[in-house]
Amino acid sequence: KVNIHVDQPTVKLSPVLYGLFFEDINYAADGGLYAELVQNRSFEYYPVEGWAGNSRKLHPLYAWQKVERDGGQVQLDVSNESPLNENNTKYVILKLDGNGVAGIKNSGFGGIVVEKDAKYDFSVYARRSEDNDNPLKVSLQTKDGKVLASGSVPSTTSEWATYDLTLTATDSADDAELVLTTGGGGELMLDMVSLFPQDTFKGHKNGLRKDLAQALADLKPGFLRFPGGCIAHGHSLENTYRWKDTVGDVSERKPNWNLWGYHQTYGLGYFEYMQLCEDIGAEPLPVVPVGVSCGFRQPFQVVPMEDLQAWIDDALDLIEFANGSPDTKWGGLRAKMGHPEPFDLKYVCLGNEEHDTPECRERFPYFVEAIRERYPDIKIVGTSGLGPEIPLFDLMTKTDVYSTDEHYYMPPKWYLDNIHRFDNFDRSKPKVFVGEYASEGNTQFNAVAEAAYLTGVERNADIVDMTCYAPLFAKYGSTQWTKADLIWFDNKSLVKTPNYYVQQLFSTSKGDVYLDNSVEMTNRASSEQKYAGQVGIGTWRTGIEVESATLNGKPLDFEDWKVLDGDFRNTEDGNYAQLDRNLEAAVSVAPQSTDGEKAVYEVRARKTGGSEGFLLVFGYE
Ligand code: AHR
């Protein structure tokens, strides 16, 4: 029995209580949310020594292969002489032998998914030697050479210029390649070879993959924290995410390596993040580095105090980029990129999960002071440091930031044991932003543990202002963070985890206020499953007695029950089962055959003690 005292509201819930955390980990950006289909489009890849063993021997021709047909031959070289611009320093030279057909092809991020009748935007920068005036033929092909779409750039010149084509697919394939061929001799130089589906989220050019972005929109997030995570402060200072490298024309952005062991084109950059926020109704929450690189790397790197102003200016300029009028320098760039209206940035997050070091303690206050002085209305979200111990909370209190970001990746038990974590937090101190959390698994039990924790968050919503699960995305076969991620995907489809549905449930049914309530559990619990899957009973902090369990009216044998977690005992007469109190536990029964009939499980259970806790019956395939 649930008693809800509708006449007894307690605290107000923040309008931005449930949000999203995006980091380019597990190929979340390039090869993921960012809809670009060509991998290594500007030949900028190089070997990457990432954090925690995430190293890869990448190279400038990674994902590219030569094409030689009808007696044609080609040599592929990568050059940095007379590049496209100072940020995009490498390009490929096709040295053609003058015979047959030759060229280059790209296999995308493990194959390009092509859909019949869909249109694709192809673009390339090209220049040629004087002695080659052959057209550049562009096609999408299956591995065995079936042409799915084609087009042609009639001629190119000896100066870098960009060429665009629309390709329309006549058939579908899951692992197509983008093939560029030409004839004749001489040299053909190519850079920024790009292919996007026209059908991106909200139809933006340089846009996002529709299904993945829609999955974010469906969570109705109050905010989006970006770009990380560890990539925000970087594995070293050269690897720090500097937002100015990620805006402007995509061909002029300065790519960087990713500490998770691959590359970032920055095609998904600060403009695109803010545009996404606008599209899904989320407040942008950019994470700005504070002159200290990731503390997991020892020795970490630090910006000398005499150079810190440039980093502080980055933070201030970011606010101008988001909110300044088009006649300011950075507001002007935003307008030029197609968004004259401000993005209405309200929050800036300073630092990501910084380790408690004197260097961080010295630098952090300068960022707070500068932002506060120039932009007093911006809410500054600080960092409490790593883990539930929140080692930097005292510094956050001293600098009097609006709220402070705490991170923890803990087993489900921790979340269940810490439902009361915030009950005694000092209300005079900064608010709390639970900026990264997950219970180390994507099972239903993990999701329930997270849900339980969020009930404690809501009870304390006067101080817990924002929360977001992490990480958000994981690409099958390309993960660096394997224990738990909110959305799993491949090139074509996605899987929403039980944890996703918990986030969605809490976000889409969030109340305005928290009502006083209590739970009495003496009643029968039952569950009707529409499939012959497993049925289970979970409990937390209370004993339960399973009195009877039936499948389609026939008793289930208690010997079939298996313990998923916790302590489960058959009693002497075998008539019921006992889960000890003060344990989280779950038991389940193995799948039962129903000969194709609907499987209706009925479980009778009752609570045997404890003043709190809950009992649930669940089913899964
Ligand atoms: O979410 C994955 C990583 O966990 C983040 O990059 C970092 O902030 C944390 O340690």
Short description:
With 621 residues, the protein is an alpha+beta fold. Its EC number is 3.2.1.55.
Structural class: alpha+beta
> How many angstroms separate the termini?
28 Å
* Strand residue percentage: 25-35%
What is the residue-mean pLDDT, rounded to a whole number? 89
Radius of gyration computed on alpha carbons = 28 Å
**Largest β-sheet summary:** 8 strands, parallel
- Domain module count: 3
Which stretches are poorly predicted, pLDDT < 50 over at least 5 residues?
Answer: 522-533, 569-585
Explained architecture:
The chain has 10 helices and 37 strands. With 621 residues, the protein is of the alpha+beta class. It has 3 domains: 48-197, Galactose-binding domain-like (Jelly Rolls, Sandwich), CATH 2.60.120.260; 221-464, TIM Barrel (Alpha-Beta Barrel); 534-620, no CATH class. Strand 33 and strand 34 form a beta hairpin. The protein is globular, with a radius of gyration of 28 Å. 45% of the residues are buried.
Q: What's the SSE blueprint?
A:
Elements: E1 2-12, E2 20-21, E3 48-49, E4 55-56, E5 64-69, E6 74-79, E7 91-97, E8 101-106, E9 112-114, E10 119-128, E11 136-141, E12 147-153, E13 161-168, E14 173-182, E15 185-197, H1 210-217, E16 223-226, H2 230-233, E17 256-258, E18 262-264, H3 270-280, E19 283-288, H4 308-323, H5 329-336, E20 347-350, H6 358-374, E21 379-386, H7 393-399, E22 403-409, H8 412-417, E23 431-438, H9 444-459, E24 464-469, E25 473-475, E26 487-489, E27 494-496, H10 498-508, E28 513-519, E29 534-540, E30 544-551, E31 554-555, E32 561-565, E33 568-570, E34 577-579, E35 584-589, E36 601-607, E37 614-620
Parallel strand pairs: 2-16, 16-19, 19-20, 20-21, 21-22, 22-23, 23-24, 25-26
Antiparallel strand pairs: 1-28, 3-4, 5-8, 6-7, 7-15, 8-14, 9-14, 10-13, 10-15, 11-12, 11-14, 17-18, 26-27, 29-35, 29-37, 30-31, 30-34, 30-36, 32-35, 33-34
This protein binds alpha-L-arabinofuranose.
The site of alpha-L-arabinofuranose has 12 residues, from loops.
